[in-house]
Amino acid sequence: MLDELYQELILDHYKNPRCLGCLDCPGACVMMNNPLCGDKVRLSIKVHDSKLSDIAFEGQGCSISQASASMMSELCKGKSVSEVRGLREKFKSMMQGKLSASACPELGDVGCLEGVSKIQARVRCAMLAWEALERCLDVSEQSIPHQVASAR
Ligand code: ZN
Question: If DSSP states are collapsed to H, E and C, what string results for the chain?
């Protein structure tokens, strides 16, 4: 029953992605690929007063990669950069099987990806957007506007 609910949430985010698009004049924009699955996520963010004031993504690939990007964007928008980095660490631990979703309710919808941690080949799909976010935060903290970083 719970698994069904989780699958529905993943499909909902996949079919109706939140924060879809590309920001005008982003503080940072990063494109990440997962060649193992063919997933792509292009993430753009704005940071204002140490807060992630805006975030948007575009991408293609499997439902897990795109739903993860959508859930992450919705969750992190408006939060402080340090909060976002903390959430990223928790998500990483969850994907490594070290942390259960029930132990971190602050992950919200993102927690429904917990089951992915048991499928090693799909962990990279779920992590892709979060890796893009971390790179974006690194770029924006260097305070270089409009820098486009590309990886892999
Ligand atoms: Zn994938």
Answer: CHHHHHHHHHHHHHHCCCCECCCCCCCEEEEEEECCCCEEEEEEEEEECCEEEEEEEEEECCHHHHHHHHHHHHHHCCCEHHHHHHHHHHHHHHHCCCCCHHHCHHHHHHHHHHHHHHCHHHHHHHHHHHHHHHHHHHHHHCCCCCEEEECC
